[in-house]
Design brief:
heterotrimer, B: alpha/beta, Rossmann fold, 6-stranded mixed beta sheet, about 40% helix, C: mainly alpha, MetI-like fold, 2 domains, two-stranded antiparallel ribbon, 12 helices, 4 strands, about 70% helix, flat
């Protein structure tokens, strides 16, 4: 080969190499972009309050009967806390989870009269107003003083609000807000969804796989059943959502337990979606177990049922667990099906017979509409991704262990 | 070229070759020459290293990461394992036919044209000519000339192996290496290919690994007997098979082991 | 000699056999149950989906009050270029034709860009890259596969639509905040890439070593061997992966709904304009869970299932034909 040909050839070779590496790394770029975007946008919101808080704002109206005094701050307060000596309250500018500016109570003097403020809207059994203990990290939406002559709103900012409080001699109405945007309800819903779905899907899935692998003989009937089960994977999950809406919701309604969508109808739907995954993983796990094991058990006088439960299934457990873990990931991530089979509503109190949203549906709710909350969505996404990646990691370790165990045959 | 000149032309010089797979030594200090336009046969029992050794000649061992070679491999007096020696160029001059026929899942035509196309030959007329002449040289043209565009997988085992030989010839090599080319074929195909080898040696140098001693005796000019990674004896075929010098050679040829 | 008392008595044997019988049937019944789900799905979607075509719904009109709506015309439904003519709940003039074509366009475009990238990535993982890079890349692909589609939707809204909007700016085209066919295609690309890459990798690995050796012995370079011999040998496996990817893209709902713009009418050919898919038309705009506007989504679901079925059949037939060309 002449040198020029050689050069041209290695030139093409280099181009091929560069192309392959560049195109091949697009996947890495995508993954990095997803992780970086989600983290940068949402990390500021991820804290315990997010996980434990309600999604709705809760407003309470309080008023006081005590008049003012003088309350010197007990600790050194930061510069950004505006302290009203008159009432013993320190205000700070902050943002809620939607990024709106709010004014929060950063510090309450232990003797401040606001410690024992009275709820305007609720009376106890004796007809006396319920006592509300004001705490830090609540927000003040608005306040009305001095016989409805002086007002201040959260839009004024912390400093102006403090000044207004300083001028107040009578507290008529203070709207106190526990800021929402928390995801406790959705977290709990997701956990319940996982548990109930697995309770439904695992027995049926494992059972079906046992039938396929341990019992069925070659026949038109078993071929038919197998084909039908294989078809389950080809159906997109939104169609299963329609199934949930058309079958499971009315079914549960007929029992009188529910009225409309519910976590239960969602779990039934998710169980159907998970079924193929569980069946497949279990079948793979059962296939790996050598027949010698089964025959040994039968030779000792055990019947097939005992063999299955005492010998085969325990050895298939890692494989089944793999399928379960993958299923958990799917439950966490499913959105379209649950929008139909449950509904797209976020809740703070989770009731199994009522609608509620999983984390994924919660994201759908807050991203829909005119003011999508990217920060909150990203924060939830961070939590979801962490779980999903951990599950992935665990499945990989399981797969490696399975490989090692295979060598004993 | 008269016979004396032919005998003086050495294609491969191999000096003190040792080959290791990690710690295992598969080839132990072998020195030998391969002459031009001859058929050199490598014989020996299974695992003696003859297949490993023949792959040194076209650097197929490069594909195995744990493989290390020491010694000199000179192809036409140039160091074939030198960094500056282009392995692609070596393989274009030293072709290989494998034990199990391995045609590509493409048409017969595309199989033969594959090598030249990779070298940059695009002209259809040139390729047509190469395909025809290679198939003729491999004694396959008459059987496939009317179905060149059909898949190579539709050929019989013997035809596929001749296709692989044609494919190698299309590269216009100087040496053709054959690693047990007939061990997967029936006797009729085997004898067709043996006849082919006899003709090919006029134009090419042939090195053939075979576990069939009779085949070596039939078709080769010189024979090398390998045992456990060592070269026991290397001489004219007639000498090896009638008056071997080493006892081990005699034991193998007379069937006492192997 | 004392007789050894056996553990096994006739009673216990009978009990065991009864147990076997019971469980054998339990397993069989659950398998039948699993198999029947598909049938139930088909029947339910078909029934609920056909209902709007045969039932007269009661609509409500602001002007005349209650109104009887005529059943939806199935032919018009399949061909019409606008989702709804008239007010929601007051009209039964629905159409899905435009969304059928838009869906096909979006899926086709996304497959066009996904397949080359996926195949090359698979080649990189299976053959070209050294072990450590290869297993790193494989992990990346697995992680990408496990990301829920809603998160791809968030990325779509947060990153991709902004990118498309910027591109629109370059051409002086006003996009709908980036909601567009292009965004849809890019999102589908991200989501189907891991699926096709994984299947392609398996197919490439399965290519027999002797063909690779044969190619190298003919003085081909590694790259030439991979592109000319390995890929063509892995063809049918890769095609199967493509069919899988197409199925996923057709059925993808949430992420696509978030970035497509869910256009109301018309076939979208301009990548910067909003489009819609069958799934986005199903998922968005749900106001009530009864009435014609809700039930029509089942009809769309029926069309979706038919589309997936037909696509699968056609693609599998194509795959066979291409495979047969090889054999002969």
């Amino acid at each position: 080969m002449k040198t020029k040909e050689k050069q041209v050839k290695s030139h093409y070779d280099k181009i091929a190499h560069t192309t392959v590496y560049s195109l091949g790394f697009i996947g890495v770029i995508i993954l990095t972009m997803v992780i970086i975007y989600v983290t940068m946008t949402g990390i500021s919101l991820v804290n315990w309050d997010l996980i434990s808080g309600d999604s709705q704002d809760i407003n309470t109206n309080v008023y006081l009967t005590e008049s003012q005094g003088q309350y010197i701050a007990q600790t050194n307060l930061d510069d950004d806390i505006y302290y009203s000596k008159v009432w013993g309250l320190g205000f700070i500018d902050s943002t809620d989870r939607e990024g709106h500016a709010i004014v929060e109570i950063a510090y309450i003097h232990p003797d401040s009269p606001f410690i024992m403020s009275l709820d305007k809207n609720n009376n106890d059994e004796n007809g006396n107003p319920v006592v509300i203990e004001l705490t830090e990290d609540t927000a003040i939406e608005k306040a009305i003083f001095n016989n409805f002559t002086l007002f201040t709103f959260y839009t004024d900012g912390a400093e102006v609000m403090r000044d207004a409080f300083d001028q107040a001699t009578q507290i008529d109405d203070v709207t106190v807000q526990v800021v929402g945007g928390g995801i406790r309800g959705s977290l709990i819903t997701t956990l319940w969804m996982i548990v109930i779905t697995l309770i439904l899907a695992i027995p049926i899935g494992v059972s079906t796989a046992i039938y396929f692998n341990e019992f069925s003989k070659k026949s038109k009937f078993s071929d038919l059943i197998r084909t039908l089960v294989d078809m389950l994977t080809g159906v997109p999950s939104i169609i299963y959502g329609l199934l949930g809406a058309a079958v499971f919701i009315p079914l549960l309604n007929a029992t009188g337990l529910t009225a409309g969508g519910s976590i239960l109808s969602g779990a039934l739907t998710m169980a159907v979606i998970l079924l193929p995954t569980i069946i497949k993983s279990t079948e793979e796990a059962l296939k790996i177990i050598p027949n010698d094991l089964r025959q040994g058990s039968l030779a000792l006088g055990a019947n097939q049922t005992q063999t299955i439960f005492k010998v085969v299934l325990p050895n298939a457990t890692p494989g089944i667990l793999t399928g379960v873990l993958l299923g958990i990931g799917r439950i966490m991530g499913e959105s379209a099906a649950l929008i139909f089979a449950v509904g797209a509503v976020t809740k703070d109190t989770v009731v199994l017979t009522e609608r509620s949203s999983t984390l994924a549906v919660h994201i759908w709710v807050i991203m829909g509409g005119e003011a999508p909350n990217y920060e909150l969505a990203s924060a939830i996404a961070i939590i979801m991704l962490v779980f999903v990646f951990i599950i992935n990691f665990v499945v990989k370790i399981f797969a490696k262990r399975l490989q090692k165990n295979m060598n004993w045959s | 070229m008269n016979k004396i000149e032919k005998q003086n032309k050495v294609v491969f010089e191999l000096k003190n070759i040792n080959l290791f797979y990690d710690d295992f030594q598969a080839i132990k200090d072998i020195t030998m020459n391969i002459n031009a336009n001859e058929v050199t046969a490598f014989i020996g029992p299974s695992g003696c290293g003859k297949s490993t050794f023949i792959r040194i000649l076209n650097r197929m061992n490069d594909l195995i990461p744990s493989c290390e070679i020491t010694g000199d491999v000179l192809f036409k007096q140039k160091d074939a394992y030198n960094k500056d020696f282009d392995v692609i160029e070596l393989r274009s001059k030293v072709g290989m036919v494998f034990q199990k026929p391995n045609p590509f899942p493409m048409s017969i035509y595309d199989n033969i044209a594959y090598g030249p196309k990779c070298q940059g030959i695009r002209d259809k007329k040139a390729l047509d000519e190469i395909v025809e002449s290679s198939l003729k040289k491999a004694a396959l043209w008459n059987e496939v000339s009317d179905r060149l565009k059909k898949s190579a997988m539709s050929l019989s085992g013997g035809q596929q192996q001749r296709l692989c030989i044609a494919r190698t010839i299309a590269m216009k090599p100087e040496v053709i290496l054959m690693d047990e080319p007939t061990s997967a074929l029936d006797p009729v195909s085997t004898s067709k290919i043996e006849d082919l080898i006899n003709e090919l040696k006029n134009d090419y140098t042939i090195v053939i690994v075979t576990h069939n001693m009779q085949q070596a005796a039939r078709i080769s000019d010189r024979t090398a007997f390998f045992l456990l990674g060592e070269l026991i004896e290397f001489d004219d075929t007639t000498k090896i098979f009638s008056k071997p010098i080493h006892k081990k050679t005699e034991d193998y040829i007379t069937g006492r082991f192997g | 000699m004392q007789a050894v008392k056996s553990y096994v008595s006739e009673k216990s044997i009978k009990k065991k056999n009864r147990l076997d019988f019971v469980f054998r049937n339990i397993f069989r019944l659950t398998a039948i149950l699993s198999a029947s789900i598909v049938i139930v799905v088909i029947i339910v979607i078909a029934v609920r989906g056909i209902t709007p075509f045969i039932q007269s719904y009661t609509g409500y009109n602001n002007i005349t009050g209650e109104v009887i709506l005529s059943p939806v015309n199935p032919f018009k439904f399949l061909v019409k270029s606008q989702w709804l003519e008239g007010a929601v709940g007051a009209s039964s003039d629905y159409g899905i034709g435009f969304a059928i074509i838009n869906t096909m366009i979006a899926v086709f475009l996304s497959i066009m860009i996904t397949v080359p990238v996926a195949v090359v990535t698979a080649l990189l993982i299976a053959k070209v890259a050294p072990k450590k890079i290869s297993s790193f890349l494989r992990t990346v692909v697995e992680l990408l596969a496990s990301i829920p589609s809603i998160i791809y939707g968030v990325i779509g809204l947060g990153v991709i639509t902004n990118f498309v909007n910027w591109i629109g700016g370059l051409f002086n085209y006003q996009t709908a905040a980036g909601l567009s066919l292009l965004s849809t295609v890019l999102v589908l690309f991200m989501m189907t890439l891991p699926t096709i890459t994984a299947v392609a990798e398996t197919s490439i690995r399965a290519v027999k070593n002797d063909i690779i050796e044969g190619s190298l012995a003919l003085a081909a370079t590694n790259m030439q061997t991979y592109f000319k011999v390995v890929l063509s040998s892995a063809k049918s496996g890769i095609f199967a992966g493509v069919i899988l990817g197409v199925g996923r893209a057709l059925g993808e709902a949430t992420a696509v709904s978030m970035v497509s713009g869910n256009s109301f009418s018309g076939v979208t050919l301009n990548p910067l304009a909003t489009t819609s898919t069958l799934t986005s038309r199903m998922l968005l705009g749900i106001k009530e869970t009864s009435g014609i506007d809700y039930d029509i989504r089942f009809s769309v679901g029926l069309v979706l299932m038919l589309m997936i079925l037909i696509t699968n059949v056609v693609l599998k037939a194509v795959m066979k034909k291409v495979g047969n060309l090889d054999e002969n």
